Amino acid sequence: MDADIITIENAHSNEKLLLVFHEGVNYGAGIVPGVYDIHSLIIPSAKEIVNRTIEMLTTNILWFNPNFVFKTCEHTGVKCALKIMVLAAELLRTELAHAKKEKV
């Protein structure tokens, strides 16, 4: 596949498609996992997003980005969801930095 980045929305499938990448499919470009269903009333915590994501993907190919469906949702829910996604990205960067320091 000749793409710079692919987005995989599979919140309803329990991340089955992402397991393919975890099991050794060699894909060198970025992957954007759908970290939760925007239409759900339950927004996972930043830690849940990080834990579930790093179980499935190699972190050097991982991106977080908001779903464009956000523009059709209520403002308060979108703002909360975006804050959690930003926090999840910050947590993941911190964890990776600590892991890198421990290897040195």
Structure overview:
This is Cobalamin-independent methionine synthase MetE C-terminal/archaeal domain-containing protein. Keywords: Metal-binding, Zinc. InterPro entries: Met_Synth_C/arc (IPR002629), UROD/MetE-like_sf (IPR038071). The protein has 3 helices and 2 strands. Helix 1 (16-22) links the parallel strand 1 (5-8) and strand 2 (30-33). The protein is 45% helix and 8% strand. The protein has one domain (5-103). The chain is globular, with a radius of gyration of 14 Å. The chain is mainly alpha-helical and 104 residues long. Helix 2 (46-56) crosses helix 3 (75-103).
Describe the largest sheet.
2 strands, parallel
Query: How many discrete structural domains?
Result: 1
What topology, given as strand order, has the largest sheet? 1-2
| Gross geometry | globular
Fraction of helical residues = 40-55%
Q: What's the number of extended β-strand segments?
A: 2
What's the N-to-C terminus distance?
Answer: 35 Å
- Poorly predicted spans: none
Radius of gyration: 14 Å
Helices and strands, in N-to-C order? EHEHH
Class from helix and strand fractions: mainly alpha
Number of helices: 3
The average pLDDT score comes to 72
Q: How much strand?
A: 5-15%
Topology (SSEs and partners):
Layout: E1 5-8, H1 16-22, E2 30-33, H2 46-56, H3 75-103
Parallel strand pairs: 1-2
